[in-house]
Amino acid sequence: MDNRIYLSPPHMSGNELKYIQKAFDSNWIAPLGPNVDALEKEISSYVGVKYGLALSSGTAAIHLALKYFGIQQGDLVFCSSLTFSGSCNPIAYEKATPVFIDSEPDSWNMSSQALEKAFHWSKTCGKLPKAVIIVDLYGQTADYDNLLSICDYYKVPVIEDSAEALGASYGNSGSNTDCKTVNKGKCGSFGHIGVFSFNGNKIITTSGGGMAVSDDVDAINKMKFWATQSREPELYYEHKEVGYNYRMSNICAGIGLGQMTFLDKKFSRKKEIYRKYQEAFADIEEIKMMPIFKKGEPNYWLSVFTLDKASKVLPIEIISKLSGGNVESRPLWKPMHLQPVFESTSYFSYKDDTDISATLFDTGVCLPSGTDMTAQEQDYVIDLVRSAFKVK
Ligand SMILES: *Cc1c(COP(=O)(O)O)cnc(C)c1O
């Protein structure tokens, strides 16, 4: 392949420049402006939450959410272990202590039994967490009926990291009408504060950016205040608190509005890509595509598979095979409890002898899933993966 095939490259609808042109025509080349307001409205109403706050990144949104819940030095924050470091780095910004929670096999997201164990432990220590960060990984919902009832019982607020899951849903609100859950809705609507990322690799992009969503107007206003350098409402610049420069620019928001115009098309294309891989590898016993969690509908952001423990071919062999053919692929997210930077933190696994997230990391491969990948390109990727099995 002459052109490298990437894991999840940006894909433009063609409408983005229209919104950027509007920004230029009106000279809104600034942070904030009409595109920002419109993107906040569009995303929050799409997700089914009252308010949105457009920010410079998903990580910034998580940081501000933690600040809203008053997280300080020495506080505990529970967080999914199988995730990208953006989920938990903000815990460290505030010098609080992360405690990592394992995944469950059905959704690969936070295990309620591991969460239960962590709460037990923290209660025994006499110190409950100040917040729980639940991640909707690889565009798939966590099991909110189980997780929220535990967090509600302990009265600990939830931050939902839906950075990868815009458009995914829990319960029968998607096209999956069979699932009977108490909670239902789009991912991002289950936490007190929900978080999205519009980084270049996500399902929609603003080149870089993110959003916090919430029904809580106080939370949104307070986060907005911090995100704009904590400016007091005075003519001169008056500051009583430390602030951040975390808002999204009007130009970036224009890209986001353009991206929203073909979101539905993206979902169907992502799903098509997943299904094609699934069919193509159906006869290879060692390969298992990421399970589709029965209680929701994913956005199929990334097509991922795991290899049987008994597989003679290792993930790294597949990854290097693809790399040799100029195709990008990767292992799954390396769990946070295995990261050197979080070495000394506590971790609660699915079972005493079963570490789901560590096993997923050891056995998984993320495949190219870009919505602008051609059928021929995907065939080429499939052939490379299959060839890794033929030699043995
Ligand atoms: C991308 C991502 C983030 C961080 O978002 P940025 O916009 O890159 O800061 C956080 N959590 C998860 C799960 C992500 O995939």
The tally of beta strands, per DSSP, is 14
Strand arrangement in the largest pleated sheet? 1-9-8-5-4-2-3-13
Mean pLDDT: 95
Assigned CATH superfamily of the largest domain: Type I PLP-dependent aspartate aminotransferase-like (Major domain)
Number of spatially distinct domains: 2
Global outline: globular
Q: Specify the biggest β-sheet.
A: 8 strands, mixed
Pfam family, one: DegT_DnrJ_EryC1
InterPro entries: DegT/StrS_aminotransferase (IPR000653), PyrdxlP-dep_Trfase (IPR015424), PyrdxlP-dep_Trfase_major (IPR015421), PyrdxlP-dep_Trfase_small (IPR015422)
Family: Belongs to the DegT/DnrJ/EryC1 family.
Organism: Ruminiclostridium hungatei (Clostridium hungatei)
What does this structure look like?
This protein is of the alpha/beta class. It has 2 domains: 16-260, 3-Layer(aba) Sandwich (Aspartate Aminotransferase, domain 2), CATH 3.40.640.10; 263-388, Aspartate Aminotransferase, domain 1. The protein contains 12 helices and 14 strands. It has helices at residues 16-25, 34-47, 58-68, 89-93, 112-124, 144-153, 217-227, 250-260, 263-280, 315-324, 356-363, 375-390; strands spanning 51-55, 76-80, 97-101, 131-135, 158-161, 169-170, 185-186, 193-197, 210-214, 287-289, 296-297, 303-307, 346-348, 364-367. The chain has an 8-stranded mixed sheet, sandwiched between helices. The protein has a 3-stranded antiparallel sheet with strand order 7-6-11, with no helix packed on it. Strands 10-12-14 form a 3-stranded antiparallel sheet. Helix 6 links the parallel strand 4 and strand 5. Bound molecules: pyridoxal-5'-phosphate. The site of pyridoxal-5'-phosphate has 14 residues, from helix 3. Pyridoxal-5'-phosphate binds next to helix 3.
